[in-house]
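Intended use. Records like the one below are meant for learning the mapping from a protein sequence to its folded structure. Do not use them to infer anything beyond what is encoded.
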Amino acid sequence: MDGLLLDTERLAIEAWIEVSRQAGYDIPLAVMLNTLGLDEHATGRVIHDYAGPEFPYESLKTAKRALMRKRMIDEGMPKKPGADELLVALREAGVPVALATSTDRERALWRITRCGWAEYFTALTFGDEVERGKPAPDIFELAARRMGVRPQSCAALEDSPGGLAAARAAGMTAILIPDMKAPDDALRRVAHYVFDDLNTAARHIFTD
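Structure written out for the chain above:
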């Protein structure tokens, strides 16, 4: 969801940098890019490794979430180009679709409901439903079970290195659509396919 269907990874990083600066911590963009696709616990480890154990992660996480939600309310949901069209086309083609997001249930449901997307998903899986977050395969395996299919019969659209590794570990066809971080050669070797955006990926999905 975040970074693939919604341009919320960018919004999250901007919010983290802002609330951290207000608290007296200067966290570079390069550090925050390492949190792309990670769940809250893994994000906390990345930030603590840079800022130190005294960094007030929990309180600033609350402030960051509030800032993000305010911006989404004030400015509208930052949908990625082609997101609406892809979801509609998959439903019309009768293709079951699962959401497998590292975001917790409450925030993820708020976002997809606000986007009008809830009806497009056959199954929903959230970061707070699995013990191990991406790059572990748990969330993709759970998504496949809820759709009633084998992971090996699924294609996973992902935007982050951790998500891509999780999809491969689950045995899925891994499709990379980069978000804020351009893929290097090593990441391209992990992906089965790499597309510039959702529209390009959709053209491949519906012609292959």
